[in-house]
Each structure stands twice: as structure tokens, then as C-alpha cells.
Amino acid sequence: MKRTVYHSGDAALHEQILQLLSESFGSQYREYYQLQLEHLASPALTKILSDEEGRLAAFTQVVEYRFRTAPNTPKFRAAYLYSVCTARAYQGQGVMGSFLPQILSELKEAGYAFAFLVPAEVWLIDYYRRLGFQWMSDQVYQTVPKETCPLLRPIDDACDYLKAVDRLEGKSVSQHRFEQQRFGEWQLLQPPVIGWMAVSLQPGFQIPSETCLLQPLT
Question: For 36, what's the count of Cα atoms within 13 Å in the CB-facing half-sphere?
Fold first, then answer.
């Protein structure tokens, strides 16, 4: 396996990423994946693993959030691992199990305080626990009062992406119809995954378990 550097002008790589996301999360959301690449992808924050023939084996998008422990306190950098996925041909071979620790090491070197994700399926909770993640909350909030403490917020590119998603849904499909489609086509999980998991990247940094995740991208 080898690391592949993302480049927005690489049409072939762009198409491979779209195909991998479609394979992993559903081809009906291709427009959303395109927005993801337009607003979130960059060489430093797009993590790609390929086989020796150049076929994508694993992918995740790092999205920067800012975290504060109390009002008017310094903000820490937090890395949201978005769209973590492994190509079907390489699942069960330990590919993500070795790739994800590499990513976490890079994020630690870059100064992020912690990394977090939202498991897409119930069985992934135990999988991520084996990689050092801990369950943080049974609630994911779309909006919370500004004075809520502590608080985790998307910034810059992530906010632009969320606005673009809103525009897409307003033009092509209503939010109500989108939710009906999502619940009709996605496999329902028992119990439902509505919480999130995190791993500290800096010595001594503690993530309060009551932290609210504001506007998750998933």
C-alpha cells in the first residue's frame, strides 16, 4: 500500500474517490460527495491510501473544528474524521487498522488536541475502541445555545460545505423529502448510532464527556 496525495486537478483520482464514497455510503448521494471534494478536500487534509496499481484502498477527510472548554477560553483544534471508508476489495485485511494510526500520528504532529468521528454502523463502535477511541456522548446536537460549555464548532471550510449542502437541498430536494429518502434507503441501525467517539492526541488532554457536537457533517 502507498499514500496518494490529493490534487483537485486530478480528474481520475477525483472520480475514484467519488466511486469509493458511493460504494461505501450509497451512490444516491453523489452530489453531496462532490460538494465534499469542492469544499473540504486539500492535499494536507485528504488522506488516501492506494494499492500498488493506484487503486484506492482507503480514504478519510479531515475537517477542522474548534473546541473550547468554557466561554472566553482559548480554542483547541479538533480533527473530525469524515467519511472514513475502506474499499470493499480490501475490507477485513487490516488496511484501516494500520492507516488510521498513521493519520492520528500526523494530526498529533500538526498540533490537533483530539480527533473524533461518528460511527456509521453499530459494529464500528467496538472497532474504533480497539484503535483508542472512546464513546463520548449519546447525543449529537444540530444547534445549542452559544453559552453552552464546552462546545465544538465547525469552522471556515466546514461552514462553507454546510451552506452548500443547504443550497443543494433547497434547489434539488426538500429537507423533508431528503429525510424520507434517507430513512427509506439507509439501513436502520439497532441501537441507532447518534453519538460520537474521540481520541486525545496530546499528552494530558482530557475531553469532557458532556461536550456537544455542533452541526455534524454526517
Answer: 23
